[in-house]
Design brief:
CATH class of the largest domain in chain B: Mainly Beta
Distance between the termini of chain A: 60 Å
Number of domains of chain B: 2
CATH topology of the largest domain in chain B: SH3 type barrels
Shape of chain B: elongated
Number of helices of chain B: 4
Number of strands of chain B: 5
Strand order of the largest sheet of chain A: 6-5-4-3-7
Order of helices and strands of chain A: EEHHEEEHEEHHH
Strand order of the largest sheet of chain B: 4-3-2-1-5
Largest sheet of chain B: 5 strands, antiparallel
Radius of gyration of chain A: 33 Å
Number of strands of chain A: 7
Number of helices of chain A: 6
Shape of chain A: elongated
Structural class of chain A: alpha+beta
Largest interface: A-B, 16 and 9 residues
Helix content of chain B: 40-55%
Largest sheet of chain A: 5 strands, antiparallel
Helix content of chain A: 10-25%
Oligomer: heterodimer
Chain lengths: 233, 133
């Protein structure tokens, strides 16, 4: 019945204060033009037949009634979404990692993954940090930006970084004591290739700026007299 | 031993406490033993305790409580800005401000430049030492 593009209608009766309109019922009748609609329809307001209610499927009485009242869980309308990204962190920002194996390393930010973690790369050739996920809380964003337009990061997501599930071997007692775990820590070749392609475009952009390469290769540390709350990053 | 910088009308002072910290203001009148009426081109004329002011060497030629236009003209005539920026005190403040606003990357570049300069100086020193030895 209603056309698709109907704008939400603003009330023709402005509020004097909350709960009290400016115009009375009879004035509003006149304003809405109900008299005109009635006149057009021959003295009565047009109405349509009530749509017959769709026949509901016959409900059988349940077989089982629980003895005590079953509690219903409270309504939860929250949606999971990735952590809000600080305004200072945009693709191409140089970040300083504050904790973990690579603490102090200056690193280039690529994108935020759906889990909320930040995808980051050294580049590997410059400072040894591979494509890696890092939490926003353990990072200082500097105001230095690198041009990241030549890099394609579409294919990286959280699953790429997940642990590989090993197929469990059937029981074989003799195999328990052999050194089976030789191949555990080798990086698959396709991950190495991914690192190379991402870094190739990045390194070209980095070398265009003087000193940026050695900057990314150096670690950050607090020296005497540096007050972090007064430093501008 | 005797005082060289006096509180007088037209004395330029640096604000060292409060909302206008770091600004150069002109003393346009003295209110009482502790307070002065100060004015600057970019602020509303108001009172300030002398304890919040540090006197500078610069003085301009104005009458008691000039209007803003006259004040600005007098400051231009005396060239307060360039006198301040060329004085050693003014230069120090400018350097301090610059250092405080340095980026992490800028600090890295400064470090590289310092190392380079020290290397060059050391080379020259070594050469001079060799000559005299």
């Amino acid at each position: 019945m209603a056309p698709k593009d109907r704008k939400p209608h603003v009330s023709r009766n402005p509020d004097l204060i909350r709960g009290v309109g400016k115009y009375s019922r009879s004035k509003m009748y006149h304003k809405r033009g109900l008299w005109a609609i009635k006149a057009k329809n021959g003295g009565a307001f047009p109405k349509h037949e009530k749509q017959a209610a769709a026949a509901a499927p016959a409900e059988k009485p349940p077989k089982f009634y629980p003895a005590d009242d079953v509690k219903k869980p409270l309504v939860n309308k929250r949606k999971a979404r990735p952590t809000k990204l600080r305004a200072s962190i945009t693709p191409g920002t140089v970040l300083i990692i504050l904790a973990g194996r690579f603490k102090g390393k200056r690193v280039v930010f690529l994108k935020q993954l759906t889990s909320g973690l930040l995808l980051v790369t050294g580049p590997f050739k410059i400072n040894g940090v591979p494509l890696r996920r890092v939490n926003q809380s353990y990072v200082i964003a500097t105001s230095t930006k690198v041009d990241i337009s030549g890099v394609n990061v579409e294919k990286f997501d959280d699953k790429y970084f997940g642990k590989k599930v090993e197929k469990k071997k059937k029981k074989g007692e003799g195999e328990f004591f052999e050194a089976e775990k030789e191949e555990k820590n080798v990086l698959p070749q396709d991950k190495k290739d991914d690192q190379k392609t991402v870094d190739a475009a990045l390194i070209a952009a980095i070398e265009a700026v003087p000193d940026l390469k050695s900057y990314l290769g150096a670690r950050f540390s607090l020296k005497a007299g540096m007050k972090p709350h007064e430093l501008v990053f | 031993m005797p005082f060289k910088r006096y509180v007088e009308i037209g004395r330029i002072a640096l604000v060292n406490y409060g909302k206008d910290y770091g600004k150069l203001v002109v003393i346009v009148d003295v209110i009482d033993q502790n307070r002065a009426l100060v004015d600057a081109p970019d602020m509303v004329r108001g009172q300030m305790n002398f304890k919040r002011l540090t006197l500078t060497d610069i003085k301009i030629d104005i009458k008691r409580v000039p209007n803003k236009k006259t004040l600005i003209a007098a400051m231009e005539a005396a060239d307060v800005k360039s006198k301040w920026e060329n004085s050693s005190w003014g230069r120090k403040l400018i350097v301090q401000k610059k250092r405080a606003s340095l980026n992490d990357f800028d600090r890295f570049k400064v470090m590289l430049a310092k190392i380079k300069k020290a290397g060059v100086v050391r080379q020259e020193l070594a050469k001079l030492k060799k000559e005299t030895a």
